Amino acid sequence: MILRPAAALVAGLLFAPSGPVMAVSPPPVQAANGMVVTSQHLASAAGISILKAGGNAVDAAVAVGYALAVVHPCCGNLGGGGFATLDLVDGTTTFFNFREKAPLAATATMYLDDAGEVIPRLSLDGYKAVGVPGTVLGLDTMLQRYGTLSRQQVMAPVIELAEEGYVLTEGDAAILAIGTEWFETEANVAAIFLDDGAPWQQGERLVQSDLAATLKAIAADGPDVFYKGAIADAVVAASTAHGGILAKQDFADYTVVETEPVRCSYRGYEILSAPPPSSGGTIICEILNILEGYPIGELGYHSAAGIHRMTEAMRQAFVDRNSALGDPAFVENPVARLVSKDYAAAIRDGIDLEKAIKSEDLKPGVAPHEGTDTTHFSIIDKAGNAVSLTYTINAWFGARVIAGDTGFFLNDEMDDFAIKPGAANMFGLVQGSANAVAPGKRPLSSMSPTVVLEDGKPLMILGSRGGPRIITIIAQAIMNVVDHGMDIKEAVNMPRIHHQWLPDTLFVERRALSPDTVRMLTDMGHTVEERRNWGAAHAIMIGSPRTDDEGPAEPGSQARPLAAPDYRFGGSDDRNPAGAAIGH
Ligand code: GLY
Question: Quick one: which of 319, 262, 313, 316 has its CA closest to 292?
Answer without folding.
Answer: 313
